[in-house]
Batch of 2 targets.
Target 1
Amino acid sequence: MVRDVEDVIIKTIARIMVPIMQVYSLYVYVHGHISPGGGFQGGCIMAASFILLAVAFNLGEAKRRLKEKAIAVFCSLGVFIYAWTGVVPLFFGGNFLDYSKWSHILPGGEVMARYYGMAFIELGVQIAVMAVMVSIFLDLVTAGRHEEVLGKDDDGFYSR
């Protein structure tokens, strides 16, 4: 009986905290250009929200919300966004990560192009960090056996 009450409290708090953490993660990303924070910190907060789901509910719930194939796609997508942001200026005669060359494509001149360039870089970092952190967590919890369905036993530990 006590375990059920504890589960209800933990699950209720997790339902409240996960959306707040995800919105805060986006806030940290958006304000990362002008204040401490950015892609890495926002990605860690976003990953922590999915890890909270796994801890509060179970691993299956977290996997249902963020599938392993999606994690792999996000890892690649984040690196691709970062790399593409650096490579595009090379086509316009600039250096790698020369954000001012984005002004040939984006509106607002060189100053806004630098802003957009930093935003793209931070977005790539946030996506990659979130996916890698969740992937590391899943590797640690499942001991690398992702394809096996894990469930909680009577003691609350994951087992095969």
Note: The chain has a mean pLDDT of 84.
Target 2
Amino acid sequence: MKKIILLVFVMTILCTSYSNAQQYKTAAGLQIDFGDGSTLVGPAIKYFFSGSQAVEGEVLFGNHITFLQAFYQYHKGIPGAKNLDWYFGGGPSLALYSGGSSFYLRPMTGLDYKLNDAPIAVSFDWRPFIYLGNTYGGSRFTAARFGLGIKYVLN
């Protein structure tokens, strides 16, 4: 319990002490989700509705499965690293496949970088799967999942 309280305290300090470095409002492009299990690829769009808060939607395909995902992300700049944000967040994920569907929760933490003098944003994050259901013998946690996003900045 003490470790959880310490983690919440440190995250609060980090969230309130660093300046925001968000360099764009909307970006769309390609998302690759990889790690344990199938590699998933598909379109993604990110929209900042405030200086530090964004939503990202993805439709990913792989191994005869389609994933519909939506994430809330809280971004903060890294002092001394121009155009580089760290972020954390998460959201729901719905897997659609022949014969059924599955529901997941996906926490995430990562880095987002807007290239200088080019309308390109690149992101890398850790995004584990938390399966909720009975299909695979109950709930399941898959830690080794990562995301790589390459997006064209629209504005």
Note: Residues 20-153 form a domain with the Porin fold (CATH 2.40.160.20).
